[in-house]
# Entry
Amino acid sequence: MNTPLFSSHAERLFTLKKTRVDFAVRVLLGQSLEARGINPHTNYLTTLINVSSAEVQSSKTLFDVALGCVEEQVLPHYTQGLSNVFNKRYSFADEDRVKTLDLIEFERIVTDIVTSLAEKPSMDLSWRAIKPLTVEDIHGALNIHLPGLNLDEVHVTSFVTHDFGKRVVSSSQPLAEYLLSHFEQDEIPYHSQGSHQAIHAAAFSESDEHPHPWLTTAHINDLLIRMVPDLLS
# Structure
């Protein structure tokens, strides 16, 4: 049952280009940043007005920077001392600088994303909304790409960690209902690595109870790459 949804990186990228640009950028950024422990939505590229000034000109999330370059079809070029990557917005303080990602490496990552999505066949950069869907539609799509899987035994469980360190279940939804709740908001959910979410075979399972025997959050990303092209208007 644990069969990869893609036979090669090239096939995965080809299919990813048929999804939507915001999701594609999240997937490609995640591939590069998650191993470094960097969330592109909570870390920032900050730029000063000039190298002799402490005044900040702009401070954007790494995701917004990458998405902007892809949508404008421009390659990034940053200047050391004028821009850098920080974990606090509008800060240019050394203590807030992201130590696991330097400016030149981020420039290379964004360049790779822009060029990979622009290479023929290039990605359609227009914003395509998700079609109106029912839970039956989602079940049908899941059955196509996950044949033989008992969907009643696939639950997406989310966790929160309290101030005293205990992690507890915050929500648990069957996979089809979980996906539909995002699609109804015209969202394509991306699932990052970490302990905040897991796939379980039973609802409201604790983190070490009833893990799904082969489906993980990483599989959900690949599943969405397969599903989404048929769900866009």
The longest strand covers residues 167-174. The two ends are 31 Å apart (CA to CA). DSSP finds seven helices and six strands in the chain. The mean pLDDT is 92.
